[in-house]
Amino acid sequence: MPVPKTVESSPRKLLRDIVFDQLLTAIEDGTLEPGERLNDEELEKWLGVSRTPIREAISKLADIGLVETAPQRYTRVAKPTLEQYAEALRLLNGFHELSARWSIPHFTDEDVETFRALGDAVLADIEARDKHVLRSSSDFADFMVERSGNSLLQQVARQMNTRVTYTALPTIEFFQWDIFAAYVAGLVAAAEARSAEDAERVMRTQAKATDAFLEQVVAAGGGVPSAS
Question: Which of 34, 96, 149, 161 is the most exposed place for a label (fewest CB within 10 A)?
């Protein structure tokens, strides 16, 4: 039989990506704490890999703001601040607006059902004031990103979402519970109507409300405004 010139193989993760995932998990679950220094030799022993994939993974983590580096001085886990959270959240909101515009008009009936279920999970976490809302809201938004059909948007949005989730963990008291509840309900309604215009209107309303809230936080010296 003829021998094919090329053989398709299943995609494999590069070692640097595996190390990145391991370090990211360790940062997110607190195994590696904010401010903790990252020593190459210690990481080599812990992860069982050479220095090269470790440095590549750390560089990637630095690109999305989870690691801080200063040549000849330190490499350490970043200490999240409210300012970093606000900066990343505003940018991520822009990506999500594009995702909504490109995905929602093309939702199937099954997509709408899944999106509604994801929204219900977020609303349940909001009702309980549960910090798991950071994960459920991420899943909710990720669904639009994955349905956007734009691979570049998907890649960048994933990176920004990782940064938002991490920087939000120490500042969960700043989460805009009521604002986000209205946002989720509005997007689900837009999805049911397959309306990009309704989705954009919801996204922009949420973005303006978030900006106003964060300005109040700054004006209050980092405290939570009583109206929230």
Answer: 149
**pTM of the full structure:** 0.70
The C-alpha atoms of residue 38 and residue 81 are separated, in whole angstroms, by: 20
Q: How far apart, in whole angstroms, are the C-alpha atoms of residue 100 and residue 111?
A: 13
When comparing pLDDT for 76 and 9, which is higher?
A: 76
SS3 content of the chain, % helix, strand, coil (to 5): 70, 5, 25
Domains and CATH numbers, the chain: 15-77 (1.10.10.10), 82-219 (1.20.120.530)
Q: For 81-139, write each residue's pLDDT tens digit.
A: 777 777 777 888 888 899 999 999 999 999 999 999 999 999 999 999 998 888 898 89
